[in-house]
Specification:
Blueprint: H1 3-17, E1 21-26, E2 30-45, E3 48-64, E4 67-68, H2 70-81, H3 89-97, E5 112-114, E6 126-137, E7 141-151, E8 159-168, E9 173-174, H4 184-199, E10 219-223, E11 226-231, E12 244-248, H5 250-253, H6 262-270
Parallel strand pairs: 3-6
Antiparallel strand pairs: 1-2, 2-3, 2-5, 3-4, 6-7, 7-8, 8-9, 10-11, 11-12
């Protein structure tokens, strides 16, 4: 684990050691608002009492590299809420806290109320958790990790996912995979080789399209000079296999002409450095 990653982990840890909400300033160039909230809602569903427990931890970027980061904020809000018409983090948090696991809004009243953990008394509970944390930061970009965990009361197990957002602080934009990879079809066999070499899974252990190659990854990030391709549970593997996260090193693609854009190589290289913070 490099110094840059340790620093990001330290910042994230500081957020949860601090009070439930507050401001964090990093070197006068980066500011974050951190919030940690949880509610338990009791309500009536089909004539029966049901419970939802919704929890969120958010290390929210207020300023990065001395500038506002509105496009990043909007992307993170959409990650939390699934909506594109919410522009304020507090509104987004409230929307998540008071929405059931199916996306229906709770209306607090006589048959829908907040309760304490102690009142559950062993009752089955729907659980939704979202955690937004800073994973990495350097002079060019910041990476945020968004963890999802949803559990339907009575189910054998929950459903979880790990998503990532990379924000280019120089260009003030959220980086998309099509800005990094020029030829996704040429990258697919390289991803399969990486899965086999790094995780030991072959095509027989995976759920793949008819051509036997993994689709474009649902998420990605840069770390230690490489591109990480990320697949969620059930996308290409069983729940027991968890998230698939494999590393695409520059040497694996450097002989493939125009497979990665120069911008992609630049971001991979930038992930090696911590020359600003």
């Amino acid at each position: 684990m490099n110094k840059k990653t340790l620093m990001a982990l330290a910042i994230s840890s500081l957020a949860w050691i601090a009070s439930a909400s507050g401001q964090i300033t990093l070197n006068n160039m980066c500011q974050f608002y951190q919030s940690q909230q949880s509610v338990i809602i009791q309500y009536t569903l089909d004539g029966m009492t049901a419970y939802d427990k919704n929890s969120i931890q958010a290390m929210w970027p207020v300023m990065l590299n001395g500038q506002d980061c509105v496009s990043l904020q909007r992307a993170l809000i959409e990650e939390v809420t699934g909506k594109d018409d919410i522009s304020d983090i507090n509104q987004a948090i409230n929307y998540f806290l008071y929405t059931d696991i199916e996306g229906n809004k709770h209306n607090l009243g006589k048959d829908c109320k907040l309760v304490e953990e102690a009142s559950l008394n062993g009752q089955s509970v729907n659980i939704s958790t979202r955690i937004i944390k800073l994973q990495d930061i350097n002079s060019r970009f910041a990476t945020f990790h968004i963890f999802y965990n949803d559990y339907y009361a009575g189910a054998a197990h929950g459903l979880f996912a790990n998503d990532y957002l990379t924000y280019d602080m120089l260009l003030n934009k959220v980086v998309t995979l099509d800005q990094v990879v020029n030829d996704m079809n040429a990258l697919r066999p390289i991803i399969l080789d990486a899965i086999t070499e790094q995780l030991g899974y072959t095509s027989e252990n995976l759920f793949l399209p008819e051509d036997g190659l993994p689709p474009a990854p649902s998420s990605f990030y840069f770390e230690d000079g490489a591109l990480h391709a990320v697949y969620q549970p059930y996308e290409i593997a069983s729940f027991a296999q968890g998230s698939i996260d494999v590393t695409i090193y520059p040497y694996m693609v450097e002989n493939k002409t125009n497979l990665i854009y120069p911008y992609g190589y630049m971001l991979m290289e930038a992930s090696n450095f911590i020359d600003m913070y």
